[in-house]
Task: inverse folding
């Protein structure tokens, strides 16, 4: 990629010997870090949040230079990352994620029932790969790092070669926080690598116990396959691309085709379309209201100027994937931006195809990462349902529908629920709230394990596994499971959720 030269000149690829050293240190640090209380882990996360919050403007300037993202967007993303760290620290301390369960003994039962207590414990060192489009929130001190630290796992970040300087500055903030909390230095490590060999060496290292990844399908699947080919396979939580389908139901379309088109023109082109939640597919039933929508969307798109993309590699990939999609039989261009693009700019484009063409051509199901969306014109409601049944797993799916539309199309509602992680009604998929109820992750290929989320504090559970303690005296039990509940966490005691002592 275009940044390889910079990375090679400024930050050399980590060698196998260096990776071995980093992993050995992380493994040793794990033995100490996993014993820290949830309060100490939360304190570390808050120290990182404070460091990031108070970072000098140079961080934003560096990120602007490396990513072409505008200042306001980067400031917002930094604030979101600070919030993420603080809110996951709060959740870490509240302890619901530990899933503490206590079933007390019953010696009078025949056979006697033992005392059994269960909680989640950390997996071990976690390797984190961030994405180029979120240099803060899904990168060095992003969601995966925060979740792994909360779970009690040391973190090794592979810097994204598209923003190595930004990553280096953020890594410095994390190192400083670790030092300030007087914790072992190797709880956090940061390595560079422009070649896939660095990623492979990290994923296949015996001391790596889990991987967090945000990026393309090809990248995530490569790491997932390496992890599964290991002598000891390990979990890879890869959040990958998605086309985030949107169904326009007839009642809603009849009511507000033009308003929906305006709303969607904004969502499709937000951040030059460089969001994993970008709506890349819009599905409706052929007819006057759909034509009105397509015309209005085309009019909007013509007025939106191209924007500079994250890096030349992403701009090139957008051009190639867009050309491939537009080159498919039965795909026609509806509209493109009326403004000519400068170098590395992504041109907003809307295309259209029939439902039949979509059903018969898997190329049309692929993500075109950028300001592009394909409108599918179905012959009837039955074909809309067929489309829903054929689409692969998605991060999000949206219905634009009236209440009556929902009641009239319950098969479609069920089919759509089956393929997505977040099911949106009458809104746009771009914008992912950081909160406990958020699900960011969907059935494969949206992510490698649709049972988990990468946004919201439930993401901590990805990096932990359950252990049952049977017959342990109170004095030897972990604090989380002691009779007195010294950490004051929520626990399920004999099937009742409570903070009470036993
Ligand atoms: P990317 O090219 O997959 O890069 C992500 C990271 O993975 C980089 O560090 C990259 O290193 C590494 N990587 C990629 N392919 C690899 C391979 N075969 N072997 C080893 N390492 C590999 O993704 P991106 O271009 O930064 O981001 C854009 C993509 O991310 C889009 O598809 C978007 O939808 C997706 N995304 C998903 C989410 C989500 O939450 N699901 C969020 C944001 C973005 P190199 O740079 O050295 O290749």
Result:
């Amino acid at each position: 990629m275009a940044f390889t030269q910079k990375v090679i000149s400024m930050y050399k690829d980590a060698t196998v010997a260096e990776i071995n050293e980093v992993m050995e240190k992380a493994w040793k640090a794990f033995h100490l870090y996993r014993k820290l209380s949830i309060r100490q882990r939360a304190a570390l996360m808050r120290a990182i949040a404070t460091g990031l919050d108070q970072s000098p403007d140079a961080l934003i300037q560096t990120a602007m230079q490396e990513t072409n993202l505008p200042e306001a967007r980067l400031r917002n993303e930094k604030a979101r990352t600070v919030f993420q760290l603080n809110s996951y620290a709060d959740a870490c301390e509240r302890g619901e994620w530990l899933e503490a369960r206590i079933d007390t003994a019953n010696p009078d039962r025949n056979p006697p029932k033992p005392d059994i207590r269960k909680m989640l414990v950390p997996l071990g060192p976690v390797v984190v790969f961030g994405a180029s489009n979120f240099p803060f929130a899904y990168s060095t001190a992003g969601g995966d790092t925060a979740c792994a630290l909360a779970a009690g796992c040391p973190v090794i970040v592979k810097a994204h070669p598209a923003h190595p300087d930004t990553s280096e500055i953020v890594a410095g903030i994390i190192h400083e926080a670790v030092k300030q909390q007087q914790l072992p230095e190797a709880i956090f490590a940061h390595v560079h690598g422009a070649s896939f060999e660095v990623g492979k060496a990290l994923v296949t290292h015996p001391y790596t116990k889990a991987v967090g990844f945000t990026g393309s399908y090809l990248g995530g699947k490569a790491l997932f396959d390496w992890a599964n080919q290991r002598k000891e396979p390990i979990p890879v939580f890869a959040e990958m691309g998605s086309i985030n389908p949107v169904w326009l139901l007839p009642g809603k379309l009849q009511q507000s085709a033009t308003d929906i088109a305006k709303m969607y023109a904004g969502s499709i082109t937000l951040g030059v379309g460089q969001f994993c939640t970008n709506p890349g597919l819009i599905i409706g039933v052929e007819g006057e209201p759909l034509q009105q929508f397509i015309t209005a969307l085309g009019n909007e798109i013509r007025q939106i100027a191209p924007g500079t993309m994250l890096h030349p590699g992403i701009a090139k990939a957008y051009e190639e994937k867009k050309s491939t999609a537009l080159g498919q039989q039965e795909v026609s261009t509806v509209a493109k931006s009326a403004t000519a693009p400068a170098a590395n700019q992504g041109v907003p484009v809307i295309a259209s195809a029939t439902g039949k063409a979509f059903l018969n051509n898997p190329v049309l199901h692929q993500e075109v990462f950028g300001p592009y969306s394909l409108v599918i014109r179905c012959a009837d409601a039955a074909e809309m349902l067929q489309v829903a049944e054929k689409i692969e797993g998605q991060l999000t799916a949206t219905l634009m529908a009236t209440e009556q539309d929902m009641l009239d199309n319950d098969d479609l509602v069920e089919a759509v629920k089956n393929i997505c992680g977040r099911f949106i009604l009458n809104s746009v998929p771009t914008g992912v709230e950081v909160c406990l109820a958020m699900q960011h992750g969907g059935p494969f290929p949206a992510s490698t394990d649709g049972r988990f989320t990468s946004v919201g504090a439930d993401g901590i559970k990805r990096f932990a596994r359950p252990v049952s303690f049977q017959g342990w005296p109170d004095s030897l039990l972990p604090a989380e499971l002691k009779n007195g509940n010294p950490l004051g966490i929520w626990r399920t005691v004999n099937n009742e959720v409570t903070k009470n002592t036993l």
